[in-house]
Amino acid sequence: MSELMVHLKKDIRGVRMESSLLILLAIILMGSVFLAYNSVLQYLSSSYGLVITTRLMQTSLNYALTSYWNEVITFQALLLLIFSSCAFGNEKESGMLKFTLAFGADKRRVYLSKFLLLVIISAIALIGDMLVFVIMITATGSLPLDVGVFFTSSFFVLNQFIVVISLGILISSLTKKKTTAIVLAIAFMIGSMAASSFLMNAGLSDSWADFNQEKSVDPSVVYNSEYIIAHFPIKYSIPLFMLPWRAPSDGMHQSINIESDPYNSSGTYLLSMEGNLLVCLGLIVMYLGIGYLLFSRERKTYGSLLASFSGKRGPSEGKR
User: Fold this and answer.
1) pLDDT exceeds cutoff 50 at 303
2) Which of 7-11, 87-91, 101-105, 279-283 is modeled with the greatest confidence?
3) Over the Cα atoms of the chain, what is R_g?
4) Does the predicted TM-score (pTM) go above 0.90?
5) Which candidate, 132, 134, 121, 28, places its Cα nearest to that of 73?
6) Total count of domains within the chain
7) Which domain holds residue 234?
């Protein structure tokens, strides 16, 4: 059996012995039921006008799906970020991580096993989300879900979860205490969401200013998605897509492809769906890479191991 599988099995046993995983999954399940119920009510209360067509009903169903995934992303991303930010917490606080590394464990495999464990947990959470929504929509006797749209949008939600847990492991590698990691994770989520909204609005404002200036010279200029994309300042777009929210969210919305998307007031997606997927993969690699660089600084010498148990500085303490 490979060393990676040994670490993964150990991590699975460890997380199964803790109540935190069961609590996380229970909260996710209850949250999914509540959010799906609200989305289904929104679908059932939709006003179609005098003429009800299959297209109108399908559009309303897609609105409900978009609403559901938006709420799921906001709610569960926070839970997964907090949970993953504690990935190394217990082992660091108990000294077990130093013990493991001191006896020859490969840091890359130790780090990767934590990531794979969290991917499995994220996939389980997503499967639960999907089942809850399908069951509730089916119970209404509505039109069947578009299978392609449903699974493609679910794939982008999974990408959002994996981006978030990659960030969480980074935070766990940075901190020594679980409490510190949790506070930092919550603060980062609030701050990054606010920053994402600010950067998007600032870019739209600048593109609108450019439009007004060009309109005074050339009245034929039209303010549309193409214009916004062409004039969206790079000083805003780069940091916007380095944050963990925009690309997965935009990709999910694009996969559902509803008309007049109420969750994207500008009606503009700066990247194509494929482009957003590539950004998601890039964010995962970036966060994992930075996290591993931080994790690789963990001491693994016998001197520091003894120091961790004796409370004294070992001969190699302070060296990297």
Assistant:
1) no
2) 279-283
3) 23
4) no
5) 28
6) 1
7) 3-310
